[in-house]
């Protein structure tokens, strides 16, 4: 099942890497002046956050129906090979858990890869921060992004393949905007620890938002499992 | 139409598939309206019906892909439904889907390698035999295969599971006659050699008649005829009655007469049962002489679906 899931999501991983790489190119563009070193870190973290919040969207392959990158033309309006998958002696719970676990691993891999590239090739951001803090940053971003991943899992189990990415994108943008226009308390804001509220800036671990993100991710997983159990094909 | 006869196995323990009063609706449209089905162990069971009669819905319900609204369905005596129970049932079933879709990113060899570990009783000997017999190219990607080749691959994947029951949804659809003949041969061979129960849906009546020993005709979500094919063929008969004068216009026919057609001085009677009593009644009519004809499965099918 792991190999099958990987074959079905590898194109998404490639796309997520290209997406995040484009942000590195933007940050490292020749002649780009980002002001003081503290400003540089802030700008880089903001851009990284923007890149990372969409990684769960690109990797939203948690639905057990998903077979093609981004679902375009995957099943000609039918269920494609899903019926064959569901004829195997594997529970829907296991199918979804494998897919979700692989998607999360892929997401963490993309986050680690991009962070390493930034750390290696943008020396200005290393000023005043140690490798331990960057490790903590990766952990924080991964945990917070897992909350978003949980939301995209619901989308991936609810809507048809081709609609997963647009549906998740709109949901994540709406949630992003909520922190500016709504009154999201700091402890519940899972976006902030990826940028201005990250351990690289605050030098502390954002426990509360991380716990909220884990709770949201777990809720997303449980809701998705419930949906998949009840789904008809 | 008569009550549905369920001939064949009389002991319910010998039935691999049993449904009672199975119902399923889609947005108020009833696809299954109290389906009763009993598939004897070791039989080749043809599941016939027009498009939209409820064949695929029944198969999907049996495979746990749809949840029936009400009624009871059992496979190997176990109630269907429930994730854990379904896993154990599916371990003993080979399934061919109606659309024959497989993973587009895999080759023939990869999809076999992927499927094999799920089935502890996987038959390597059958895999080798049918890879060769079906002339399946192991390195070919699935989308490059013709529909006929995809059907053969799905059949291979179903057969090699070492399954006790094959559930095949329109296995011959889209196959050219030569390939269809191959597939029919494989299925009869499997039932004879391995004792595998084969439950297959089709609207190709000739295919069903060729290999099935039991048949169920489904119409508008209900089984209208079911039983052993030989029994049905002897039970159903067509009578041609010639009259020396004008035939009587209204006769209170005995039980068993399904349809009467007038053609000049001849009456064509389609009887579903009780044929001897029908013959006796016809012979009691003045100036009547009667001839009895066996009916084909196609005739039974057409009479059944027309009268509903």
Structure description:
The complex is a heterodimer of chains A (233) and B (308). With 233 residues, chain A is mostly helical. Chain A has one domain (2-230). Chain A is 69% helix and 0% strand. Chain A is built from eight helices and no strands. Chain A has helices spanning 2-27, 37-58, 82-86, 92-121, 131-158, 161-181, 199-202, 207-230. In chain A, helix 2 (37-58) runs antiparallel to helix 6 (161-181) and helix 4 runs antiparallel to helix 8 (207-230). The longest helix of chain A is centred in the middle third of the chain and has 30 residues, at 92-121. The radius of gyration of chain A is 18 Å and the shape is globular. The two termini of chain A are 20 Å apart. With 308 residues, chain B is an alpha/beta fold. Chain B contains ten helices and 14 strands. In chain B, the strands form three sheets. Chain B has a six-stranded mixed beta sheet, sandwiched between helices. Chain B has a four-stranded antiparallel beta sheet with strand order 2-1-4-5, with helices on one face. Chain B has a four-stranded antiparallel beta sheet with strand order 12-13-11-14. In chain B, strand 12 and strand 13 form a beta hairpin. Chain B is elongated and about 75 Å long.
Describe, in short, the structure shown:
Chain A has 233 residues and is mostly helical.
Number of discrete helical segments of chain A = 8
Helix content of chain A: 55-70%
Structural class of chain B, please? alpha/beta
Count of helices of chain B?
10
Distance between the termini of chain B: 8 Å
Shape of chain A: globular
Order of helices and strands of chain A: HHHHHHHH
Order of helices and strands of chain B: EEEHEEHEHHHEHEHEEHEEEHEH
Give the termini distance of chain A in whole angstroms: 20 Å
Mean pLDDT of chain A: 80
Q: Taking strands numbered 1, 2, ... along the chain, how are they ordered across the largest sheet of chain B?
A: 6-7-8-3-9-10
Q: Mind describing the biggest β-sheet of chain B? A: 6 strands, mixed
Tally of distinct domains of chain A: 1
Major β-sheet of chain A, in short? none
What is the strand content of chain B? 25-35%
Q: Any idea what the shape of chain B is?
A: elongated
Question: What fraction of the residues of chain A are assigned to beta strands by DSSP?
Answer: under 5%
Q: Report helical residue fraction of chain B.
A: 25-40%
